[in-house]
Amino acid sequence: MSNRVDLPLPPLEYRGWVSPITVDSYYDNPSGDYVWGPLDLGLLAPGEAYRRILDFGCGCGREIRRLLMQKDPPKEIVGLDVNRRMIDWCTHNLARPGVSFIHHDVWSRWYAPDNSRNRVLPLASAGSDFSLIEANSVFTHLLEDQTVYYLEQMSSMLAPAGLIRATWFFINKKAFPMMSDSQNTVLIDEEDPTKAVFYDWEFFVRTTRRLGYRIVKVEWALNLGLHNTVFLGRDDTFAELLITTPPGTSCLGF
Ligand SMILES: C[S@@+](CC[C@H](N)C(=O)[O-])C[C@H]1O[C@@H](n2cnc3c(N)ncnc32)[C@H](O)[C@@H]1O
After folding, report:
1. Domains in the chain, ordered, with CATH?
2. Which pLDDT tens digit goes with each residue over 87-134?
3. How far is the CA of 154 from the centre of ligand 1 (A)?
């Protein structure tokens, strides 16, 4: 049984800002199991990756609420987001010893139109030694320079055997012959280019390697063009995944 059934649920308005899925069950963890499984990758013992977590783009605390309901909850969690109202809600409703929230004053047309016009800001105030940095459906809304900046920041914030778990939209650039060497993303919305950002898979592999990461595990999208989950680590105790072509049922253009 979960140990924190008393945690409040975010208002429906906020839930609608972060996902079309707004049902209570998307915010719950009734079994109290590890939210993303035991994550016993490399030499990590089951559950060890959950010790100290940064939830980058935590929104209204969906993942943090579920983490707090684990039978073996994390020792420390930091949630960070650009949306001030959701961060305020999280601070008032989910903060407790070991769980804190940070407003990140970076501008976003949809998520943070009232923020300062910063394109990126350092993440240092969030801390370091994270055993897990989580970013669910966040890099899917960041442009190329922002993504590279934040991946670079995160590399010095991870514990030695720390992992980044993040979701991505991928394409095969070869299916878009007009894309030049320097063009690596496909955008779907003219008014808000961050509505959905698709990254070229080869660019992703090259960039993460250049930044010193290993691709440890990929959970390919079950439906073509949707979220792929990638685990990145820096430690050489993680075996690097032999890069294979994404299945044609997961990524556009393969
Ligand atoms: C689709 S929502 C996902 C929210 C949460 N991760 C979840 O799974 O419920 C994307 C989140 O990323 C946040 N975000 C957008 N740009 C950001 C940035 N530059 N830094 C941090 N968070 C950002 C948004 O405010 C929003 O809460």
Report:
1. 12-233 (3.40.50.150)
2. 999 999 999 999 999 999 999 999 999 999 999 999 999 999 999 999
3. 16
CB-ligand 1 contact for 138 (6 Å cutoff):
yes
Residue 97: which residues within 8 A CB-CB, separation 6 or more?
none
- State the distance from the centre of ligand 1 to the C-alpha of 58, rounded, in angstroms: 6
pTM: 0.97
Residue located nearest, by CA, to atom 10 of ligand 1: 138
* Count of helix runs (H) and strand runs (E) in the chain: 5, 9
User: Could you tell me which of 142, 156, 146, 147 has the C-alpha nearest to residue 54?
Assistant: 156
Ligand 1 centroid to residue 177 C-alpha, Å: 31
What is the pLDDT averaged over residues 34-40?
98
pLDDT in tens, 67-99: 999 999 999 999 999 999 999 999 999 999 999
